[in-house]
Amino acid sequence: MATEIKAEYIGDEQVRLTHGPTGAVIVTDLPPDNGGKGRMFSPTDLFASSLASCVLTIMAKVAARERIPFEGSSIAIVKEMTESPRRVARFAARVKLPAGLSAVQREKLMACVKVCPVHRSLHPDIKVEFAEM
């Protein structure tokens, strides 16, 4: 399945992204650590957001199938950059799952990290660490 995203430079170091199928819009900004103003998500912030969102979505799908309570689950993710070459070097994430889940349920949900399409698409040099809070 293919999805078109339109990217348009709108000035002042910002890019407007428009989701073709729905028209939903996100605007990105150049981050302060690269000389920008950091007024909103940077492209690499969206990269981290994509990984966290993908993992949480796959977890939700598994939880629904297995009838595992999932409301209130969350992921806090930190993105670390390197300078030479400038790229994402590491994602470190903390996963909060509902209280009262069995060890087997927690294991099933945490296994979703490796099967999310974003994680599978990452370059192997990017370190990815997910830990349950």
Short description:
The protein folds into two domains: 5-34, no CATH class; 44-132, K homology (KH) domain (GMP Synthetase, Chain A, domain 3), CATH 3.30.300. 31% of the residues lie in helices and 34% in strands. It has 133 residues and is an alpha+beta fold.
CATH class of the largest domain: Alpha Beta
In the CATH hierarchy, the architecture of the largest domain is 2-Layer Sandwich
Instruction: Tell me the helix content.
Output: 25-40%
Distance between the termini: 35 Å
Counting structural domains, the number is: 2
Give the overall pLDDT as a whole number: 97
- Provide the structure class: alpha+beta
Strand content: 25-35%
At CATH level 3, the topology of the largest domain is GMP Synthetase, Chain A, domain 3
- Helices, by number, come to 4
CATH homology group of the largest domain: K homology (KH) domain
Shape category:
globular
What is the C-alpha radius of gyration, as a whole number of Å?
17 Å
- Low-pLDDT residue intervals, each spanning 5 or more residues: none
Query: What are the secondary-structure elements, in order, as H or E?
Result: EEEHEEHHHE
Strand order of the largest sheet: 1-2-3
- Major beta-sheet overview: 3 strands, antiparallel
Kindly state the number of beta strands: 6
Explain what you see:
The chain is an alpha+beta fold and 133 residues long. The protein has 2 domains: 5-34, no CATH class; 44-132, K homology (KH) domain (GMP Synthetase, Chain A, domain 3). Helices cover 31% and strands 34% of the residues. It has helices spanning 43-66, 103-110, 112-115, 117-121, and strands at residues 5-11, 14-19, 25-29, 74-83, 86-96, 127-132. It has a 3-stranded antiparallel sheet, with no helix packed on it. A 3-stranded mixed sheet has the order 4-5-6, covered by helices on one side. A hairpin with a 5-residue loop joins strand 2 (14-19) and strand 3. The relative contact order is 0.14. The mean pLDDT is 97.
